[in-house]
Model the fold of this input.
Amino acid sequence: MPGPFYALAPEDQQRLKNEEADDVIVHKRDGLFYQTSFKQTMDNMAYVNEGFTTFAIPILLEKWKIGDINRHLNCAANDQVMRDLASKIAEHLQDSK
Done:
């Protein structure tokens, strides 16, 4: 049975190709700052999704964000990611028959 999925922004796709690049990411929550890295985030996602069929869906559009501050997918990027996810799920279901 298909499991979780995540969308990979263009810059994340580049980071995956370049094993030496491991940018520090700073998060702020409840007035506190937390420092992580892209590699740590990807390792954590792999750990959490262990045992599940997980789909990484690359975002293929140049303009994919709602805005400069809001990194949620805009409508066109959401359509592209959902279309590609549906294709991967259909392929996975065909392979499991």
